[in-house]
Write a structure and sequence with these properties.
It contains one helix and 42 strands. The two termini are 74 Å apart. The strands form 21 sheets. A two-stranded antiparallel ribbon has the order 1-2. A two-stranded antiparallel ribbon has the order 3-4. Strands 5-6 form a two-stranded antiparallel sheet. By secondary structure, the protein is mainly beta. Strand 7 and strand 8 form a beta hairpin. Keywords: Disulfide bond, EGF-like domain, Glycoprotein, Repeat, Signal. Pfam families: EGF (PF00008), EGF_CA (PF07645), hEGF (PF12661).
């Protein structure tokens, strides 16, 4: 079984092994030759001497031949094994000629010798009884090309066949097999190119691979130049050196000037430059004035400190950069159904009728006709739908007595845009100029 990536394919061991006078059979770890009758040995090239064993000729002499044997019968006997009696007056009955040879009586038919008949053999056979096969592979009448092996057909004496070497085909082994086309690129692995050659093929490997089918990843770490003590990681046509902490460089060839006691940086980080075998550093002992870049928002005041800074925020803003508006009303400080209003740095409660105090916590026991509310700053009293005035921006409160700070006072809009307060008058948006 051949493994290519995640694909297994069956290996044909018989493709490169020849059984000369037999049939090749694939087995799990190789091949086996099943020999034809009359042949033996690992590749069926050894002739079996049938005459060495018990004489197969019952009434005659055994004569060994290539791949077979024949019997010279005693007078009065015929048959392949001389097993049949033959009377002189019955020279051709039964037919003493083997392999479909034609029997012809000679003489007057009364001779007591065994030569009173003649066998005319079919093409491909010879011998007194047509018992032997003509060896066309050795008599020069049949040739195989390009190292092909000629094999006689001992079964029906048809023309010999050629057993071709791997990579060749055709009746006489005269044709090349294009393995690259037959296997559709499946022979070569890892991106290699298949190139057909006469009787074979080559795999043109890409960088980093080798082997008959480019199946082997070359171990680039074998000849790597990594500094002693460093680790090497093999890649495709490359390798990487993994340095110990005290070494730097592509090959770990430089000492790390930032390691251990060599570190020159007092309050910062040392950065080595492996290409130059050097490093860059500063003592990091000079304070940076972060306030030069005005990091604080909403008109907060930047205060520089040694190695840092902080922002002193305007009332109503918080977080490190004064970006977050403090919403005092989130804690619900107003009581007795009063409405809470956030202002910059403070808040106030708009009390229902009959309540007063900072948090509307005092019951005044005073009633007023709703429409008698003294609305201020353009506010409108709408009785009986409301018990307070409807105020115009930026005013608020029961009688519109409070004015919200204009959020555009700290205008941060740039590039010619216009600051526009939102409806709640607590935030704003920048309206860009029309182009």
């Amino acid at each position: 079984m051949k493994i290519s990536g995640n694909v297994c394919s069956k290996v044909d061991y018989c493709n490169s092994n020849i059984c000369y006078n037999g049939e090749c059979v694939n087995q799990p770890h190789g091949n086996k030759c099943v020999c034809q009758s009359g042949w033996q040995g690992p590749d069926c090239r050894e002739d079996v001497d049938e005459c060495k064993s018990d004489n197969p000729c019952v009434n005659g002499q055994c004569i060994n031949s290539v791949g077979s044997f024949y019997c010279l019968c005693l007078p009065g006997h015929v048959g392949k094994y001389c097993e049949k009696k033959h009377l002189p007056e019955q020279q051709c009955t039964p037919n003493p000629c083997l392999n479909e040879g034609k029997c012809e009586s000679i003489g007057n038919g009364k001779s007591t010798t065994s030569n009173n008949f003649k066998c005319t053999c079919k093409e491909g056979f010879k011998g007194p009884l047509c018992e032997r096969i003509e060896d066309k592979c050795t008599d020069g009448s049949f040739h195989c090309f390009n190292g092909g092996i000629c094999i006689n057909n001992l079964t029906d004496n048809s023309s010999p066949a050629c057993k071709c070497p791997a990579g060749l085909t055709g009746p006489l082994c005269e044709q090349d097999i294009d393995e690259c086309e037959i296997y559709s690129g499946g022979l070569c692995e890892n991106g290699a190119t298949c190139r057909n050659t006469w009787g074979s093929y080559d795999c043109m490997c890409v960088g980093g691979f080798e082997g008959r089918h480019c199946e082997v990843n070359i171990d680039n770490c074998k000849d790597a130049l990594c500094h002693s003590g460093s680790a090497c990681v093999d890649g495709i046509a490359r390798y990487e050196c993994i340095c110990t902490p005290d070494r730097i460089g592509e090959l770990c060839e430089f000492e790390n000037p930032c390691f251990g006691n060599n570190n020159k940086c007092m309050h910062g980080q040392c950065f080595p430059e492996p290409e130059a075998g050097n490093y860059t550093w500063e003592n990091c002992d000079e304070d940076v004035n972060e306030c030069d870049s005005n990091p604080c928002f909403k008109q907060g005041t930047c205060v520089n400190t040694q190695g840092s800074f902080f922002c002193e925020c305007q009332p109503g803003y918080t977080d490190p950069l004064c970006m977050t508006l403090i919403r005092y009303c989130d804690t619900n400080p107003c009581q007795n159904g009063a409405t809470c209003f956030d202002d910059l740095g403070t808040y106030h409660c708009s009390c229902l009728i009959g309540y007063s105090g900072k948090h509307c916590e005092v019951h005044s026991y005073h009633t007023t006709n709703n429409c008698d509310l003294p609305c201020q700053n353009g506010g409108i009293c709408r009785s009986p739908l409301s018990d307070k005035c409807e105020c115009l921006p930026p005013f608020e409160g029961t009688v519109c007595e409070f004015e919200k700070p204009n959020p555009c006072e700290s205008n941060n809009c740039g590039n010619g845009s216009v600051c526009v307060p939102n409806k709640d008058y607590l935030s704003y948006f920048c309206q860009c100029p029309k182009t």
